[in-house]
Fold this protein.
Amino acid sequence: MKSTIAFLGLIFISLLIYNCSGVKKSTVTRDFKVPEFKPDPASTFLSPRESMQTMHLPPGYRLQLVASEPMIKEPVAIAWDGNGRMYVMEMRTYMQDADANGEQEKSSRISLLEDTDGDGVMDKSTVFIDSLLLPRMMQPVGNELLVNESNTIDIYSYSDTNGDGKADVKIPVYQNDKYVVNDMNMEHQRSGLDWNLDNWMYLTYDAVRFRYTNGKMLADTIVSGSSGQWGMTHDDYGRLFYSRAGGEIPALGFQINPKYGALDFPDQYNAAFAEVWPIIATPDVQGGLPRLRPDQTLNHFTAPTGQSIYRGDQFPADFSGDYLVCEPVARAVRRAEVVHQNGKTTLQNVYQNKEFLSSSDMNFRPVNSATGPDGHLYIVDMHRGIIQQGNWTQPGSYLRQKIDSLGLAANVGHGRIYRIVHEGSKRTEKPDMLNRKPAELLAYLGHANGWWRDNAQKELVARADQSVVPALKEIAAGKRTFVRKETGHLERIHALWTLEGLQAMDTELLITAMNDPDARVRKTAVWISEPFLKSGDRTLLEQAGKLVQDTDDDVRVQLLLSLYNSKSDQGKTIMNQILEKGQTHEMLLATKTALDKNENVRTFGSRLGQMDEASRKLIINGAGIFKSLCASCHGADAKGLAIGGAGMAAPPLAGSPRLEFTEKNNLIRIVLKGLTGPVEGKEYTSIMPAMEANSDEWIASVVSYIRHDFGGRPPRKKGEVPGMAPAATNNESGFPVRKISSPVVTAEEVRKIREESATRKTAWTIQELKPEQQE
């Protein structure tokens, strides 16, 4: 759910302060005055104009109202079609009271807004799709809108064939009846569907990415799982940025593409970055007092969401490429500088002890951000009292007490969309891409605003018109350009990826691109060459071998990524040369480790080979649940998430006494009812929530997977073969049948523990869970 940008004149300046492996040097004024702190804010409803008066930005920036209620209600995401019309995703049943009554009703929608007079304010609105169940994802492609709803992975294409602004055609483009979804908690479901530079659409939670071809979404498994929770984005060069509200992590997953594995550094930002700086007291926080400073302000991220990279052409050059992430509990939006150095990416808050946008309106709930076709930064304000899902607002909870005492449940059915403009902003042309011929779209591949570049590429790939291939090859080779020579690297990069999307790439052009004077183009050429390199193309391998000496770190890292699975001796030799030269190179070594772990995950199925089908199914389903839900706090490897030096949100599972082979009932108890308090003497920032709303089979699946992958091994008796139970029966051939001692927990075992603890209303503590006796 994100966007783009950069002005022809400004891009040239930005090239002087930013390069692929260098440090971006900011000239921004980092200090500015914030309003007086409000220790006792009221939840009083404010009109859009009144609310805007409570919002504060650095000097030179100001807010403009784009749309508000009654035109829109409960907005969570926006996207523009090729003609600049805005789709607004509205979750109209989200937390209409503290008990989430009616949340599963199909009365949400996607609206289509238009600015007919060019003043930046939406003045025309139609309901494009009605009667939806809490829509999760959308992506405009040509005259279609791809949409996914809650509680399903199915994706449908909607289109308007008579021009009335309402969808009248609905076609399934991806369906998966076997998908296991956590339909009891709408916070723990996918988002995104971000069309990245590489022509794949990425999403959060689910370990899959999609490519839209011939009216169908083709799925590709991401072996080590995806990242993130609510929202994701990409930069000019295809780097993806996720966040995890569950793990209280404002940014992660941005070191390498997730298809290669998971890689995050503990120091990719420091502990100070994890702190947030509201300008009002923030009492309504899940987790209670440990989450607050003495002045009652939120002390660090708890709900990072709706991130974007500013890629526009209307802000000062030092804003280009900066990372924006919303924090609706803090009523603020963070602006972070993205620094690339030695192949590694790090983040730092642009402002010391301040946020880019902050408000003293308790109902201001920024949940998403995006760069628009006009080059401005858009903020989606859900504008409501309650921002936590019903699992965390149960009667008797700390948060419920605050919701009731402050009257936060009263404010529902509102919503605003703002755009942030700079005093140097200028009016820009309105896009008309859907009406342009393919040859006319070529001029936008090097546009100063990344939104235009992305959408020109997407349109060309979606139309699959081969007539533009010769011109694209000229652009990619630098023989033809529609932009200033100094900014042509972006044009060449998009031309290369457009050719890749049209399946029109050739070896000669890739060799030319590998010799491009700009390192970012060379890196792109290696990335696109990957299928050729894996298949052992000798000509390309010879050219790739020369890049071992490349002075740019990102080029060498991409070379390692793209050659890792090469079957040829030549490819393996090049990879070894890279590693030999980079024996002290942090990013290269970490990338190799991530690739090794990813490859190990590929062999996961072999460990299940001797299990019966029902056991395999439980564990495989549990793996999907864990990677999409539990990994947000515990980490994909179950070792916890420690990023930024701010401590872990949840304890590591690997090595936990609760995962000893005989401890299955205690593990079931924890998953059913939750866990609170210190674990092994340590406090954690998050509380393990109760999962009892899910089915017995759902609980059994995730517990079985955790025990299988991270738990202890069964105790051995004298003379017993490791991992095998004593023979008890014979098969038809007369040979003994040995059954594997299984970590699997059955739905029936879960049911028994559920009945046993049916009257319990609170989470367990470690002290209450006595070690179980071995049977």
Q: What stands out?
A: DSSP finds 19 helices and 27 strands in the chain. Residues 611-768 form a domain with the Cytochrome Bc1 Complex; Chain D, domain 2 fold (CATH 1.10.760.10). The first strand starts at residue 55 and ends at 56. The CA atoms of residues 38 and 721 lie 67 Å apart.
